[in-house]
Design a protein that fits this description.
Elements: E1 40-41, E2 47-49, E3 52-53, H1 54-61, E4 65-69, H2 70-83, E5 88-92, H3 99-107, E6 111-114, H4 117-125, E7 133-135, H5 142-151, E8 155-158, H6 161-174, E9 179-185, E10 189-192, E11 194-196, E12 207-208, H7 213-222, E13 228-233, E14 237-240, H8 244-264, E15 270-272, H9 290-308, E16 314-317, H10 321-324, E17 328-340, E18 344-349, H11 358-362, E19 369-370, E20 379-385, E21 394-402, E22 410-414, E23 435-439, E24 442-447, H12 452-458
Parallel strand pairs: 4-23, 5-6, 5-16, 6-7, 7-8, 8-9, 9-12, 9-13, 10-14, 13-15, 15-16, 18-20
Antiparallel strand pairs: 1-2, 2-3, 4-17, 10-11, 17-18, 17-22, 19-22, 20-21, 23-24
The structure holds ligand LLP.
Length: 461
């Protein structure tokens, strides 16, 4: 079946329907906002990244492979740095972390947010200065807290009264005075184009503002001579396009700041507004630039500080996806093309939900293009699926691909830098793909491919 009508697509798997509809004319086109900046189609029709032919990358490293455009990632770091010159920018390592990326972001002047002992270990192994590490988590273990203190991390974002107790005991035992922020649940939840400012206090993260726990946590820390309270922290969600959620959050958290000043005469010197800045996965997404974001966030914070007669705290932010997401694409090889008559064409690739769980988990939208050649064939609406034993194993829900898409073609899916390799699994004992960094005509492996031997090595029974 060719050129389906949009109405026919509403899903057997409950997906919302097409979000990325190419026209027949542009099936080979690359929409710039979706691709790492050095990607272009070469004269022979194959994609090139950092001057390298993707067919050569596939031949050398195999598929699937995550290809990271290092200049793209670095330029995003620089844009954030330039837009937030006086602020501390913590790259959220949960989006993707490995030693090479930690070094890149450190060289570009960013700090690092980690949220587990594992991420902390990678950060330290990469030589990240500990004072530039922030440690998050709603259930940090005693041993994780101990490691963070021993390493001398710059800030610990506390998330529960029990954590405050544990940290106090550990700090006392070790004779240190860690800097802490209180994670505040401000009652705002923002995702994509919407935000809701109601009762989203029903979650595991943070101290409730409305219920008074956030103020109580701040007072408790101020009373604890072994802890240094540096500020408040708020993170309202992910893939956010609408800054009004930040506005409400900043207002509320600075209201608490004023309450603390009024009660204790202390103006906390720092304020962290978290991450969550959206990126483009499809042509329908229109993210703000770091510059626009900075302008709005500064205006919000300055306005609110003025209203509350507070000195401006030093701001920090924690972008993850916006730094690494657009810098990476996944290169797959097509294995099977199945035309399920009257419904759609299924294009199966050699990876799937084990290297990108986001489509199955969040109904996320991606786009794709045939990467190894251009094609003059008419477009067909296809669904890109993986090789796993699960009907929900979908990578790209709806995409126009050329009708002659065939086994052996390389298919590239952009926007896979964040929460893909970091959330990868070994479902069906499929080894996790490598990450290859490309820059100025050179490729280097930064995370190697997992092997079946790696998997068997864990199997000690
Ligand atoms: N700061 C805090 C406290 C966070 O919890 C997060 C993300 C970030 C910063 C970074 O957010 P970003 O700028 O990357 O959106 N697995 C989901 C996303 C979960 C995000 C969790 N926290 C996904 O694939 O969309």
């Amino acid at each position: 079946m060719r050129a389906h009508e949009a109405g026919a697509l509403h899903g057997d798997l409950g997906f919302r329907g097409p979000t990325w509809l190419r026209t027949p004319e542009d099936v080979n086109a690359l929409v710039p906002q979706l691709w790492p900046r050095t990607v272009a189609r070469g004269a022979d029709g194959a994609l090139r990244v950092a001057g390298l032919d993707v067919r050569e990358l596939a031949a050398e490293y195999g598929t699937p492979v995550y290809v990271l455009d290092e200049d793209d990632l670095r330029s995003r770091c620089r844009e954030f740095r330039a837009a937030f010159p006086d602020e501390e920018i913590f790259y959220a390592g949960k989006a993707f972390i490995c030693r090479a990326v930690v070094r890149m972001i450190a060289e570009e002047g960013l700090s690092l947010d980690v949220c587990s002992g594992g991420e902390l270990a990678v950060a330290l192994a990469a030589g990240m200065p500990p004072e530039r590490i922030g440690f998050h988590g709603n259930n940090k273990s005693v041993s994780e807290l101990r490691r963070a203190l021993d390493a001398g991390v710059g800030r610990i974002i506390v998330d529960s009264f029990q954590e405050i107790d544990r940290l106090t005991a550990l700090a006392r035992e070790r004779g240190v005075r860690p800097r802490v922020l209180v994670r505040v649940t401000v009652g705002v939840e923002a995702h994509t184009h919407e935000f809701i400012a109601t009762a989203h206090e029903d979650q595991k993260f943070g101290f409730s503002l409305a219920g008074g726990a956030a103020a109580a946590a701040a007072f408790r820390i101020l009373d604890e001579d072994v802890l240094e309270l540096r500020g408040l922290h708020s993170h309202i969600g992910s893939q956010i396009f609408d800054t009004s959620g930040f506005e409400v959050a900043a207002k509320r958290v600075l209201g608490l700041q004023a309450q603390i000043r009024d009660a204790r005469g202390v103006e906390l010197p720092e304020l962290d507004l978290g991450g969550g800045f959206g990126i483009a996965y499809t042509t329908q997404d229109d993210p703000s630039t770091p510059h626009e974001l900075a302008k709005r966030l500064h205006k919000i914070v300055e306005g609110e500080c003025e209203a509350q007669r507070l000195a401006l705290p030093r701001l920090s932010i924690e972008p993850g996806r916006a730094i690494v997401g657009p810098a990476v694409f996944t290169l797959y090889e097509v294995g099977t093309v199945k035309d399920v008559d009257g419904i759609r064409t299924y294009v199966s690739v050699d990876g799937g939900m084990s290297d990108n769980i986001r489509t199955a988990l969040y109904d996320a939208s991606y786009s794709a293009t045939v990467a190894s050649r251009a094609s003059a064939a008419e477009p067909i609406l296809a669904r890109v699926v993986g090789k796993h034993c699960e009907a929900g194993d979908v990578v790209v829900k709806d995409e126009f691909l050329p009708a002659d898409v065939q086994p052996g073609d390389l298919l590239a899916v952009p926007g896979t830098g964040a929460y893909c390799r970091s959330m990868a699994s070994n479902y069906n004992h499929v080894p996790r793909p490598p990450v290859v960094a490309v820059r100025e005509g050179r490729a280097r492996l930064i995370v190697r491919r997992e092997t079946e031997d790696d998997l068997l090595a864990l199997d000690v029974g």
